[in-house]
Fold this sequence. Notes:
- By secondary structure, the protein is mostly helical.
- 69% of the residues lie in helices and 5% in strands.
- The protein is built from 17 helices and 5 strands.
- The chain has helices at 2-10, 12-31, 41-50, 57-62, 66-69, 78-93, 95-101, 104-133, 145-172, 177-201, 207-233, 269-287, 295-303, 318-338, 341-350, 362-397, 406-428; strands at 235-242, 245-247, 250-252, 256-262, 353-354.
- The strands form 2 sheets. Strands 4-1-5 form a 3-stranded antiparallel sheet. Strands 2-3 form a two-stranded antiparallel ribbon.
- Helix 8 (104-133) runs antiparallel to helix 9 (145-172), helix 9 packs across helix 10 (177-201) and helix 15 packs antiparallel against helix 16 (362-397).
- The longest helix is centred in the last third of the chain and has 36 residues, at 362-397.
- The protein is globular.
Amino acid sequence: MFDSIKNVFKVKEIRIKLLFTFLMMIVIRFGCQLPVPGVDRNYFADWFAQQTGDAFSFVDAFTGGSFLNMSVLALNITPYITSSIIIQLLTIAIPKLEELQKEGEEGRKMMTAITRYVTVALALLESSAMAIGFGRQGLLEEFNALNIIMVIATLTAGSAFLMWIGEQITVHGIGNGISIVLCINIISRMPQDIAALFTQFVIGKNVAFGALAAVIIIAVILLMIILVILLNDAERKIPVSYAQKINGRRFTAGQTSVIPLKVNTAGVMPIIFASSLMEFPGIISTLAGYRGTGVWSEVLRYLSSSYWCNPSYIKYTLGLLLYILLLIFFAYFYTSITFNPIEIADNLKKRGGFIPGIRPGKPTSEYLNRILNYIIFIGAIGLTIVGILPFIFRGLFNASISFGGTSLIIVVSVVLETIKQVESMMLVRNYRGFLND
């Protein structure tokens, strides 16, 4: 492993890419601490601490604390993530976008440009909601048109700047720019969360209790990481054979290949969709300044994960069941719009390929669909376990962490993908990589 790390820095091109990526990370973390002008940051921190729900905790975890600090990068890349999801869904519904996606490099450039425009539009919308909604509650030092416009412009520019940094990391760095931006934000919160856990359960306790608590904390974190790695790498390989071809007077032997179907086909998207849908009513209510105690307030408690698995509010755990159902539904839904068995079966038939024992055409698509439904369910169960463990520990032990569920899957996936990216760069230059030791 150490030899592989040394080999990485021996290659000038990889060394420059790593250095560029590291410098961009420093810029991001600096921007997360730079305050928005005209904002009372102390008021916002106090307001955030008084919230009984967790509507904005999900956003704050994704922004690396910049949302809580109300920095110029408070919106971070959440508008870009939302924009990407919207464009991806619209590609299925709008034939023109689907055609663009299939037009090669030029089509991808157009799709990227559309995603950028939608990102800026969403950033304007979100920053306006924050400046006006929170501004009325005391976020702004002076609630006037000038301050509102200044906050909107600053937050929108910060989000656009971070999107640009992500693209630069993709082009000039080690790739996966947007994912790395999101990953570094999440990782920046982990030391603080782990320190809070040890302060709550280990420090100041008697030796036996503290040692047991420390072992349990470390074991649970390692268990979740291992589960996420297994979930991320697990796949079902469908064997494919290709018919013999005649080349002049010669017969070319048929080739064999596989169709890799990932167990976690939809990745982290089901958790993001389910969490966003559950938290959306709370966010809208907060921005609207809702302070009621009626039926709607009761509904918000069912939707808030801060009440789930808590013995004092056991009835609100019904909201967790809704969350699990949404997670499984979105696992199937997202896979259905990103993986098309009929298209794969048609492509195989055109190229003379077939799955042994399965007839080409419709029987192949039905077979793929059957296998896919089976492995999606396994992946959804794995996602559910990773997703609900933090809620269980929060409810039973009041252990609030930001690196569970969604965050952990993103971090592990990005780290593994980055290692593979560097690995491929090294193998091109005949170096042994991390995965070859």
